[in-house]
Amino acid sequence: MTQPPELDTLPPFDREAARAARNIMALTPERVAASLASYGINVYPSDVRAWEDGTRPPDEAELVALARTLALPIERLLGSGPTTLQMCRLRAGLTRAEAGRKVGMSEATWTRMERANRWRADERRTEALVRALGGLSHRQLVEVSGAGEELAGLLALTLSSTRRQAHLSPITEVLGTRRRRIGEAIDALAPEFPPTGEKFEDGVTPPLPAGALDRFWFHLGDPPADPYAPGAWRRPPSRA
Q: What is the DSSP string of 118-162?
């Protein structure tokens, strides 16, 4: 059963994918629970039902064992939510201790970053992170650094403004990518999402149009992660 200290680190879970896989394999919740026991996970059939109906998602150990029981890549059970440091580690099949060793830090330090989803490290360790996680895109590196929402907000401000150049510097700080390259991507993006003319109060960030973030990364070329770029992952640990 999940212990209280772990509640803030429960991995994302696609319950519909789990139910569909179980049905395809013609397994009852009782059979799934029995199979999980062979991986050292002792749960009741009612727990399996609770995972599938959304009452209680599985913890990390339960999720790993469930993926093995259902003969699924673990990413199929993680769903398609925002990329997190925990999600990338699970996809790479690593424990927190193993991930920490691969990037040259203690398990406690790794765990602290994972719980906050804020990767903070120098170029050498960031390069080790990208390698340990099987390769990341630059977008994923930004997201595991906890700057995904910040980037979305900056893009929303940029698209709603008639002075797009004024917003390039903060976006450049987040991505660590050349300002000119970002400007070209935004110039290509802006005609696809013209300003609506809607007015917002000072300090209120307008919503980012659906699909705009994906299109921005498309126009940027969906580059692989650049550990040596001075992006969000180079910020001091105390900075949001």
A: -----HHHHHHHHHHTT--BHHHHHHHTT-HHHHHHHHHHHHH-S
- Is-contact 80 143, C-beta < 8 A? no
Sign of the alpha-carbon dihedral angle for 20, 22, 27, 32 = negative
Cα–Cα distance, 78 to 67 (Å, whole number): 10
Whether the Cβ atoms of residue 4 and residue 59 lie closer than 8 Å to each other? no
The one-letter amino acid code at 198 reads E
Which residues make beta-bridge pairs with 224?
Answer: 137
Average pLDDT over residues 152-181: 90
Q: pLDDT tens digits, residue range 134-158?
A: 999 999 999 999 999 999 999 998 9
Over residues 208-234, mean pLDDT: 95
Position of tokens 């039902």? 49
Longest CA pairwise span in the chain (Å): 61
Q: Stretch 1-15: mean pLDDT, rounded?
A: 62
Report d(CA 15, CA 21) in Å as an integer.
10
Note whether 66 and 75 are within 8 A (CB): no
Helix axes 168-175, 179-189, angle to 10 degrees: 120
Long-range contacts of the stretch 31-38 (C-beta < 8 A, 24+)? 32/66, 32/69, 32/70, 35/69, 36/62, 36/65, 36/66, 36/69
For the whole model, what pTM was predicted?
0.81
Tokens of 215: 């299109």
Judged against a pLDDT cut of 70, whether residue 7 lies above it is answered with no
